[in-house]
């Protein structure tokens, strides 16, 4: 057991292949924002911005922002909500910890269903060239845009 930033840490795992340090505290892995960027492509700037909006509660260790497994789930939730075109302003007023992933998956499934319906309609229209199908597609497209556009 080592003492890091006033907290007891079970062990430090050093992985030479990606030159990173992952600190494990009570079974929870903690990453630096730089390490997270190398693993996922999510920039440190994005993580810092979410933190400044109050969406993440990052801790600092030796001047580096640290991301926990809990933060990773919060980031995933934010991304899912952004995919379904929720604005960060709106996300700020939600309690991320109270939102379940299955609940957010339903939003993605609804979006997916709408897209599949549009694709099927386009396929029908491309073979039949029926004006009524075109009107229906326009209506579906408008509904989709109203629901999912910013």
Automatic annotation (TrEMBL):
Q: Which UniProt keywords apply?
A: DNA-binding
Boundaries of each HTH merR-type domain copy?
A: 31-94
Could you cite one Gene Ontology molecular function of this protein?
A: DNA binding
Does the keyword DNA-binding belong to this entry? yes
Which Gene3D superfamilies does the record cross-reference, listed alphabetically? 1.10.1660.10
The record's annotation in InterPro entries points to:
DNA-bd_dom_put_sf, MerR-type_HTH_dom
Q: What is this protein called?
A: DNA-binding transcriptional MerR regulator
Per the UniProt entry, what species is this protein from, by scientific name?
Answer: Paenibacillus harenae
């Amino acid at each position: 057991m080592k003492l890091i930033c006033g907290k007891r840490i079970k062990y430090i795992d050093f992985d030479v292949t990606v030159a990173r340090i992952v600190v494990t505290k009570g079974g929870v892995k903690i990453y630096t924002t730089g390490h997270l960027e190398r693993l996922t492509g999510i920039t440190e700037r994005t993580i810092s911005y979410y933190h400044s909006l109050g969406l993440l509660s990052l801790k600092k260790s030796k001047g580096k922002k640290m991301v926990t497994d809990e933060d990773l789930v919060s980031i995933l939730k934010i991304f899912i909500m952004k995919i379904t075109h929720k604005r960060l302003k709106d996300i700020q007023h939600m309690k991320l910890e109270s939102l379940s992933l299955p609940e957010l998956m339903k939003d993605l499934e609804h979006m997916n269903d709408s897209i599949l319906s549009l694709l099927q309609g386009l396929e029908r229209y491309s073979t039949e060239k029926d004006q009524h199908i075109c009107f229906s597609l326009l209506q579906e497209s408008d509904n989709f845009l109203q629901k999912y556009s910013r």
